[in-house]
User: Fold this.
Amino acid sequence: MFKKILIANRGEIACRVIKTARKMGIKTVAVYSDADRNALHVKMADEAVHIGPPPANQSYIVIDKIMDAIKQTGAEAVHPGYGFLSENSKFAEALEAAGVAFIGPPKGAIEKMGDKITSKKIAQDAEVSTVPGHMGLIEDAEEAVKISQEIGYPVMIKASAGGGGKGMRIAWDDDGAREGFQSSKNEAANSFGDDRIFIEKFVTQPRHIEIQVLCDSHGNGIYLGERECSIQRRQQKVIEEAPSPFLDEATRKAMGEQSVALAKAVDYASAGTVEFIVDGDRNFYFLEMNTRLQVEHPVTELITGVDLVEQMIRVAYGEKLEIAQKDVTLTGWAMESRLYAEDPYRGFLPSIGRLTTYRPPAEVAAGPLVANGKWQGDAPEGKHAVRNDTGVYDGGEISMYYDPMIAKLCTWAPTRAEAIEEMRVALDTFEVEGIGHNIPFLSAVYDHEKFTSGNMTTAFIEEEYPEGFEGVTLPDGEIKRIAATCAAMHRVAEIRRTRVTGRMDNHTRHVDNKAVVTLQGVEHEVVLDADQNGSDVTFNDGTTLRVEGTWTPGMSIASMTVDGEPLVLKVGKATHGFRIRNRGADLKVFVRSRLQADMAALMPEKLPPDTSKMLLCPMPGLIVKVDVEVGDEVEDGQVLCTVEAMKMENILRAEKKATVTKINAAAGDSLSVDDVIMEFE
Assistant:
């Protein structure tokens, strides 16, 4: 087996590979840019080599710098992770020439299947059903418009070398095709160093389902079930699960066998993924093959017990697969949530900065087990698993230069409903402060009826959140549970406060047992009857809820029970109450006396400043282009400028008719959130 491998990547996937290498007794080498000098993957590896400035095109995707790091450290093999150089055939060729093993497929397979245009042609030749589209290269925006008209709108404009949602746009008309072509081309060039674009029909109401394949260099190939990846935003996957709640066994088998046949047709050897669009009648259409490890691979590992990274390393070393198709059993259900550094309340715009708090839920190991490629049996009935793949730590920083992922939180349980409930609790206990993040949105999705029923498509977010995410309004029953809990917590806090100030003895007779709890715009008058184990909280409608728990002031997580049912709250400080976060809701909960509540109702509300005549930068980023000049009259919807952040281009448009009076930024300027880009009258 290899003695030392280099991971040509960063962040959570580099950490993920290091964990398996360590388990196998293999030394690891990390590479890092200036921005990643203190990154977690650097701390975890046995050695680390600096490779350049923060931009990926000056560090992580510069083949010569990676090759130099290999020479410096004597690494025998390279795992590319995903993104960056993972599907770059020139990189695989350079490794081969240097006598270094590539922990991925052969160069020829990358060339044939890693390129989306070539892979579609191969799939068509193999009589695999594909989505209608134009497979040739497209020279300019006008040709893109012509092709789009021939295919018929809507169309998907995609980067040939793309991945992870980069370089992808949906166009619904000619203007969208022109604009999407140029943005996709720019993003592709910046992210992958390859600006080739192709166009295909956008199938409405699709499900995105992919098959995990695993092949060796001895002609053996298997599939390890499927992953449902239909919860997407801007073609970027947000939630994945395995297996799919939609497929039946016959469709799974057909998709799996077709995927393996396609892999064998290009002499594939490693882990890979064949992606399909599946319609409502379970007809499936080949989209592309990803010749690398997928971001969402953990859910497959959780339901099969197969360590895909370990298998990739063994295949690269020349070993035969010890797992046959008959050994693959899908056990239980797994969910994956991608935690992103993006603010769901600001249109999911990227957020950067220091993680002042980063406390993930405790990981729990369970699920199917496979050791050394041989099946070991299932997890005990009723057990569950929590897994968190991450590349950050408490006090670390989220950089503007890379993907905004914070972590991949996964849960496993015997059934889908149980796996969803485990995820709800895990999200409720995941503490992230200092930056914007999408935990509230993820929590909202897991409570959405369309998701829990399994009746979703790739249009789920677009259809259910057409105006963006504006938070969650909790049902009355849940509000009462939270109100009762906060009343009980407030009583505990008051006891602590009065003891500290010396205003009472160890008894609680002077703490008022009446309170007015206000949240989500509604007042609840309650009376508390407390004992050593908890409080009975009675509402003015006669309802009584029993609240128990061990929360004390200063604890940021309150794990309570209300009438015997668990309730987990994130707790923050607030005047006359708490900031409470639960199941996607972010609440200000006021606990006051009757007099305090009446006085608070008379206080004037502070109004936000008027920014209606300004264009504010919605995220930290780089101005790519300014499309207007001082004195221009702009119309509603007109493009004003383009801002690039975390490898994605964001086009900012006018919200109403106005005249540009001042421009404060130019192409190449770096801006912070809410910097004024231009002003209007």
Observations:
- The CA atoms of residues 516 and 596 lie 9 Å apart.
